Amino acid sequence: MLDYATLFRPDLPPAAARWNGFPRFNFVGGHNDADCVPVEALIAAAAKVLKREGRSLATYGLDSGPLGYRPLREYIAGKLDRDAGIKCSADQVLITSGSLQGLDLVNALLVTPGDTVVVEQMTYGGALTRLKRAGANVVGVPLDGDGLSSAALETTLKDMKGRGIRPKFIYTIPTVQNPTATVMSEGRRREILALAENHGVPVFEDECYSDLVWGGARPQAMRGMTADDRVIHIGSFSKSIAPALRIGYLVADWTVMSRILAIKSDGGSGALEQMVLAEFCREHFDTHIVTLRKALRRKAEVLMEALTAQFGPVAAFDDPAGGIFLWVRLPDAVDTTRLTQVALESGVAVNPGAEWMTNTVAGQRRIRLCFAHPGEQVLRDGVARLAEVCRREFGVPVPDPKGHR
Amino acid sequence: MLDYATLFRPDLPPAAARWNGFPRFNFVGGHNDADCVPVEALIAAAAKVLKREGRSLATYGLDSGPLGYRPLREYIAGKLDRDAGIKCSADQVLITSGSLQGLDLVNALLVTPGDTVVVEQMTYGGALTRLKRAGANVVGVPLDGDGLSSAALETTLKDMKGRGIRPKFIYTIPTVQNPTATVMSEGRRREILALAENHGVPVFEDECYSDLVWGGARPQAMRGMTADDRVIHIGSFSKSIAPALRIGYLVADWTVMSRILAIKSDGGSGALEQMVLAEFCREHFDTHIVTLRKALRRKAEVLMEALTAQFGPVAAFDDPAGGIFLWVRLPDAVDTTRLTQVALESGVAVNPGAEWMTNTVAGQRRIRLCFAHPGEQVLRDGVARLAEVCRREFGVPVPDPKGHR
To answer: CA 20 to 30 Å from A202, out of A252, A394, B264, B341?
Structure first.
């Protein structure tokens, strides 16, 4: 037997745990609503595009080069113009394997161990994990109901400047912020941009949830508010169509793009996904997304009702502006890191707030609940189970004296 | 304007060049035969599997977890048992985005800057690029007609041991070696394995061309010759079905796999490719591959005939045992790095040998010609054009005094 322990890189993350299927009540993972996967239209799109262009599978990158399948890039450029106020050409769009690859590429482009990166104090756990693994000094800035606080950002940037620190970028999720589910106003976006410009810091704008604002309309993206390369923009079809497709995109000018392409060493993202999406989206995206938003809104309501019924005032949350998750505050008596562990033993998976906040102690009062995948009854039963576990472990929610809950 | 030059990581590779379409005579890139893409069967497979399981696209990893779509892993485990003499379970198979991701993952698992890695003196250029980028000290070992020389490997390993160096792994392409297109005998494989065992060094076995041995049968894989985790094995469907699908696989035990999974941060490989391949392969792989091998063999013959006709004895090469490329030696008068540049200006793309060898000076006498994608006439015309350029620049091949070439 080889002793691999002496061969592994010394800085590897801990070994993965074996996967044993999804838990029964699964409130984690960013999955989507299975009923809303447009299966028939995807089959038709696959048949049509493969019949027309299937032979091009014989070449790496189809006949579109390393940026990805050109018809999909053209669709995205058009969609960003219509929906996000971004003027860009297909040559400024890179297809990535999910927006996750966008995160990896931007980190690989800019972050050397010891570099400082500014993020929202509550933010996507996967972004935090990646930045820490890249050796970044991650600095969290508070949010308010309008997203990243410009006042707090200004203080942070000034303080850093005073200490001779220039952050590599400001990472923000303006539209359906993860985990708070707020939508940043256009005014706030301009304030953030102005601050970034003053301090010579790029903005890394993650708009992967932006198709899921309940009302449909989204504010202009920050990328659209500047004529130059100050904002690197990423988006995804994981939340709007299906996560397993692993198709996201990154928008940047050639200065940035030419360096990102040089480190994107994967021989291109999956061709079938790109071809099928391009074919599907041209005809069906706009109607599909309306249906999906309705279904998600309904599930958000079911989850909120269940939380109120089971936890009462003990669980505090804001009605989300869109998306697939709810950010819940529990009383100080509850340690959500521990709650997460014991709930999982009862088949209920939730994201502990500590993984979604730069201040992990404050995070121990929070949980994130994803609602897109479970059915309505599973949402209700799962919340009831969670309340039971929470009561047993932490004494809250207190049982209703009349026997109701 | 942001000055990105001051923000980029200092160790980035050079910026990518803009892509302007494929050159007219394209002998690079590992593309496949477009006529052999089984378009109709892929369409049928897509319809069938999506109708049955399309809803599962709503979950990351389908319902199969982070190793990849289980039916594809089961198919691969069965195929490796039948074709490569590897006994493994579906839980020892990880689906990767092409075998390229396998290279990236193994490097990320084992290589710290300054580490030594042993490779074949002539080997895949992309592996060399990746290892150098990872900071490895890359040591090339000579090959003979049977692939990696065990005698030379023994000398190298002993010499390293004497200097207190334990390489992180031995990277080898045993079946249809890239670029020499030889197939390593089972005897040689056992010798290499014994040496690796004696020196406590893992073997990283890249079998991505192993389905393309002309006769069909391939030797047992080294992974199949040991009961333990000494060999990490990778393979691919890029060469046997279509490169744009980006589906490869990695075989390892849990000690290694659990660490690789922890660094595979992409949220899974493309689901459509995995689903469609699993569905297609069960029914059609074995007949498809016979057709493909015949078509590739025919193209190899056309290329060899064209080289003989245009270059005569000036171009030396061995008849390949399979695969999609020919490894050609030109006279000392020819600098193939320069030839590559001027040929490209005439629309002929070839791989300069210097990119495929650890000894870049020796590589300047070699070129690699990929023959799977161009049509027969393009192969002939491209070789004629290449001969013209070579004659103009280096005086060889000498024109036939009778006016023939």
So the answer is: B264
B113 in contact with chain A, both atoms CB, cutoff 8 A:
no
Does B43 contact A47 at a Cβ distance shorter than 8 Å?
A: yes
List strand residue ranges (DSSP E) for A191-295, in order: 203-206, 231-236, 248-251
Dump strand ranges (E) for A152-239: 170-172, 203-206, 231-236
Residues from chain B contacting residue A71 (CB–CB below 8 Å): none
Angle between helices A271-311 and A39-53 (to 10 degrees): 170
SS (H, E, C) B189-243: HHHHHHHHHHCCCCEEEECCCHHHECCCCCCCCHHHHCCCCCEEEEEECCCCCCH
- AA letter at A111: V
Cβ atoms of B329 and B285 within 8 Å: the answer is: no
**Ranges of each domain in chain B:** 21-37+289-394, 39-284
Q: Does A54 touch chain B (CB under 8 A)?
A: yes
pLDDT one-digit tens code per residue, B96-151? 999 999 999 999 999 999 999 999 999 999 999 999 999 999 999 999 999 999 99
CA-CA distance, A364 to A123, in Å (whole number)?
A: 14
Q: How many CA atoms lie within 13 A of A326 on its CB side?
A: 26
Q: How high is the ipTM of this complex?
A: 0.95
CA-based nearest distance A286→chain B, Å: 18
Q: Which of B92, B131, B193, B272 to mutate to test the interface with A (most CBs of A within 10 A)?
A: B272
Partner-chain contact B265 A112, CB within 8 Å: no
pTM assigned to the model? 0.96
Digit-coded pLDDT (tens) for A89-104: 999 999 999 999 999 9
Q: Does domain B21-37+289-394 have CATH number 3.90.1150.10?
A: yes
Is the Cβ pair A47, B46 closer than 8 Å? yes
- Among the CATH numbers 3.40.47.10, 3.40.640.10, 3.10.129.10, 3.90.650.10, which is that of A39-284? 3.40.640.10
Residues of B in contact with A23 (CB under 8 A): none
CATH class of A22-37+291-394: alpha beta
